[in-house]
Automatic annotation (TrEMBL):
This is CapA family protein. Residues 46-295 form the Capsule synthesis protein CapA domain. Keywords: Signal. SUPFAM superfamilies: Metallo-dependent phosphatases. Transmembrane segments: none annotated. Belongs to the CapA family. InterPro entries: Capsule_synth_CapA, CW_Biosynth-Accessory, Metallo-depent_PP-like.
Amino acid sequence: MITRSRQVALALTALLAAGAACQAHDDAPAGAGRPAPSAGTAGGFTLVASGDVLPHSSIIERAHFDAGGVGYDFRPMLAGVRPVVSRADLALCHMETVYGENGDYSGYPAFKSPPEVAGALAATGYDGCSTASNHSLDDGTAGIHRTLDALDRAGVRHTGSARTEQEAYSVTLLPAGPAKVAHLAYTYGTNGYALPADRPWAVNLIDEARILTDARIARRAGADVVVVSLHWGTEWQDEPDRQQLTLARRLTAARTGDRPDIDLILGTHAHVPQAYEKVNGTWVIYGMGDQIAGEMHNHQGVRDPRGNQSTLGRFTFAPPSRPGGRWEVTKAEFVPQWFDVDAGRVVNLNEALARGADVAAVRDRIRDVVLSRGAAQGGLLMGK
């Protein structure tokens, strides 16, 4: 429920947040070393998004090996998708876990990842990450602080969890070509960990009314495009569940005037790729899958290679034909990915196929799932 006090607090901070957000992004070394971004369409921009970054113990060990046994280097893991990510005008990831410190790192079930992950995300070209997940409270509020501090140092913006009440009620605005994009993020829960009584704002939980209120405040703060990341769905299920379908339909139907309140929905959590679908004229990715994860075992305890399959979503936005109109998606694409647990690398499957790798079956399975709800008829293409 959105209380009157929350509405007032959000309204009071929105305009300040807009200016602070853009200034913070402009000053930060996000996407360090990235090539010049795409120009998108004339006066438009391209947005790339990817799924869960979930460093299991084996991933942490691999990063230690890649760093030569001194520290942790996650950049080689992501190098295979850097060309796609870094060329976008705006690139968004999902940081599912929190960070530890001083060598106190762990994988499943309570994750504490090395903070060097943040620098690798920046080096790959990511500008921002959603941080609301069922693992956001794995190390209490201290884990949230360390995670957001590390992302700040790396110049990667974030949304979905917060260190202060003011931060929780601020709008995360990111520049994308000539546009301003608001990024909002929410999770279905926190694995039974209760939100601290004195910090109920520490992690954003999914609530339809709250999401729509936040989206409208973001619009008033100057957002041309509103993107919502949702950590939702049923693990290991290729098909979106009833909650996903219902919430997607209701969120995309909400409008203020003649413009939708939400322009794009990005789903995470299920571990497996799920469908893309155009709902009420708005693109929804029900689940992008795990971009980085160790060897995955499903609820039956069986190794399940789908847990290392995922997609990158890429959307080209064009400016409205008239002032105050909607920024329209003129091109929607998905890029199939796979995390090779043996090599410890994210693989762009179409690029790998072009080099002669035997990955057609994996690529085709991902494609079939992505298109299973008619996205091809909506104009979705498979990109490279």
